[in-house]
Amino acid sequence: MEAETKTLPLENASILSEGSLQEGYRLWIGNLDPKITEYHLLKLLQKFGMVKQFDFLFHKSDTLEGQPRGYCFVNFETKQEAEQAIQCLNGKLVLSKKLVVRWARAQVKRYDHNKNKILPISLEPSSSTEPAQSNLSDTAKIKAIEA
Fold it and tell me: Are residues 57 and 112 in the same domain?
């Protein structure tokens, strides 16, 4: 019996907005020091070219509300600018942490008809021939999706 799983063109708005697919070349920048400000990071990124969009993310709830999440997204106008930013910034020490800079990817989700759930690919079972099972508890799945 073949598992009924379809790929849905859903995207997590905080990870990749629909408009950003057409507005330049999007990078994910992670391992940000909590002390770095939006202003200083934006000034650093502008050295590599025209920044079309900059998304510096903050926690929305819990005890960390209002504090930076430790990563951001940036759209450059040209591929050359984005590649130069990756080459120059990836692994560079900024304050107390080494940056991780790479191409941003859309988060694809799948709908499992057997369980009536939408799961990110990372939470899907590893084999499509087995029934939809996972070693993660529902609470762990929820936390992974929220993160």
Answer: no
- Report residue 140 as tokens: 């762990």
Find all residues with CB under 8 Å of 49, minimum gap 6, and list them: 76, 77, 78, 80, 81, 82, 84, 85
> What one-letter code names the amino acid at 15?
I
Q: Give the per-residue pLDDT at 138.
A: 75
Instruction: State the CATH number of the domain containing residue 78.
Output: 3.30.70.330
Give the separation between CA 78 and CA 85, rounded to whole angstroms. Answer: 11
User: Under a CB-based contact definition with an 8 Å cutoff, are residues 22 and 106 in contact?
Assistant: no
**In the beta sheet, which residues pair with residue 7?**
110
* pLDDT the model gives residue 136: 64
